[in-house]
Amino acid sequence: MEKPLWMICTTHLFVEIYLLIQVALIPVIVREFQLSFLEASLVATVPSLAALLMNIPSGFLADRFSTKHLLFASMVIEGVSALIISQTNSFWALVVGATFMRIASPIYHITGLSQLSKLAKPERISRTLGFHNAFGCIGSAAGLSTLTFFLSTTGWRWTYLFWSFPIVAWGFILLFSSSLKTRQIRARSVSSASMSSRLFKILSPVLLIFLIVIAVREVGGTGSSTFMTTYFVDVRELSETTASLVFALGPVIGIFGSLSGGYFAEKLGARKALGWIILCSAISLLTLSFVSQVYLLALVYVVYTLFSYAVWSPINAIVASVTPETERGLSYSLYFFTEGLMASISPSLAAGVIELSGVWFIFPFSVVFFVVSLVTLKFLTSFERTRNTAEKLPHV
User: Fold this and answer.
1) Which of 15, 144, 249, 393 is surrounded by the fewest CB atoms within 10 Å?
2) Is residue 186 part of a domain?
3) Residue 217: per-residue pLDDT
4) Is residue 187 included in any domain, yes or no?
5) Rg of the chain in Å (alpha carbons)
6) Chain-centre distance of CA 330, in angstroms?
7) Nearest-CA neighbor of 10 among 146, 126, 134?
8) How far, in Å, CA of 136 to CA of 130, rounded?
9) Do the domain assignments include residue 184?
10) Burial 138-159 (b: 16+ CB within 10 A, else e)
């Protein structure tokens, strides 16, 4: 890959450092701050809502401003927020710090992915996105690995302090780099009429149905991941350190999942690859609920994670393929808005179900949503096939 692509991917690595740490810390937070699961879920729900609100503005910013300035902003916001979290002893201060930290995610993702989709060759976009996602997995794995270390030594707050300075330093490297100079987008009117016309331009029936697929799948994926370490600790009786270690295997395997997702999307086609990945995710997650030995638990979790990370390359490739290049930033912002909306709802929804039934119910809860998303994806494929056939028929 060219240097600009490597720099964007490395920024993705830093953005994902803290992605899973808040979730992995839920059993620790419950014990330290004497919270219920519903209260503890706020550390995932409130930041997700903040990221949700930033998605659409980030799309407009990505289509107008320099890539390196937006990536710099995302790094500084994340690094400073992590530094603040490392110094807090209040649960609500932790929630506020995590909320500001998550604002960095949509600023990066919408800017980075829209730029990647323009720089990558059309025939290589799935593979390029696979490499991009793999770097994110490396970041998540690095974050969880340091969390495991600090949990057993100086305490979880040191994880936030440890990564804050490298993240801010990378932001300044991006700011002064000449490799990320991008073509300027012609200034456009920001009137409400022009914004409406831009939205109308990209909101095709195909994209709308696909957003439903994304939304339903996200409920299942977020619901299970939010309380996975809680399941390991409370149901399977693993220690908090062991649970974090098993959870940390996910992003490591996610590196291979991301690369394989990009490869199969390129070979099979993004939609067919996505269908198989969702099906295998549902099967492996259901299997996870039946195993109890630590080594089998870790093995099946690794398999599930392989498929759950493979999903992102075909999803991002499909979004790029069904939207115009000139509105790519806004297109990705709609995708992340949909995903973020479901990610913000899912933890509290799953927590409410858990309070009524038990932690084990995250598995059938998630599997149902995976199956519904798969059925919707099949409907989308049938819809497109019917539409394409109709377009080929002679008009009379």
Assistant:
1) 393
2) no
3) 92
4) no
5) 21
6) 17
7) 134
8) 10
9) no
10) bbbbbbbbbbbbbbeeeebbbb
- Cα–Cα distance measured from residue 209 to residue 143, given in angstroms and rounded to the nearest whole number: 35
Exposure of 177 by Cβ count < 10 A (0-12 exposed, 13-18 middle, 19+ buried)? middle
Q: pTM for this structure? A: 0.70
Confirm if 107 and 61 have CB atoms less than 8 A apart: yes
Contact predicate 222/346, CB 8 Å? yes
> In this predicted model, what pLDDT tens digit does every residue of 51-102 receive, in sequence order?
878 877 777 777 677 888 899 999 999 999 999 998 888 888 888 888 888 8
Name, in order, each residue with C-beta under 8 angstroms of 264's C-beta and a sequence gap of 6 or more: 273, 276, 277, 310, 314
Structure tokens given for 245: 């270690």
Task: Supply the angle between the helices 270-288 and 312-321 in degrees, to the nearest 10.
Answer: 150
Q: What angle do CA 228, 299, 229 make, to 5 degrees?
A: 15
Give pLDDT < 70 ranges for the chain.
1, 63, 180-202, 325-328, 383-396
Q: Which own/partner pairs from 177-186 qualify as long-range (CB within 8 Å, at least 24 positions apart)?
A: 177/7, 177/68, 179/3, 179/4, 179/7, 180/4, 180/7, 180/8, 180/66, 180/67, 180/68, 180/71, 181/66, 181/68, 182/66, 182/67, 182/68, 182/115, 184/66, 185/63, 185/64
HEC letters along 130-142: HHHHHHHHHHHHH
Sequence-distant (6+) residues with CB within 8 A of 163 are 14, 17, 18, 79, 82, 143, 146
Domain around 360: 3-179+192-392
- Distance, C-alpha 355 to centroid of its chain: 26
Cα–Cα nearest to 82, from 161, 168, 172:
161
Decide if 281 is inside a domain.
yes
- The SS3 of residue 212 is helix
Cα separations in angstroms, 72 against 76, 77, 120, 175, 186: 6, 9, 22, 6, 22
CA distance 43 to 339: 18
Q: What pLDDT does residue 339 have?
A: 83
Query: How many domains would you assign to the chain?
Result: 1
**Token digits for 34?**
């004497």
DSSP states of 222-236 as a string? HHHHHTHHHHHHHTS
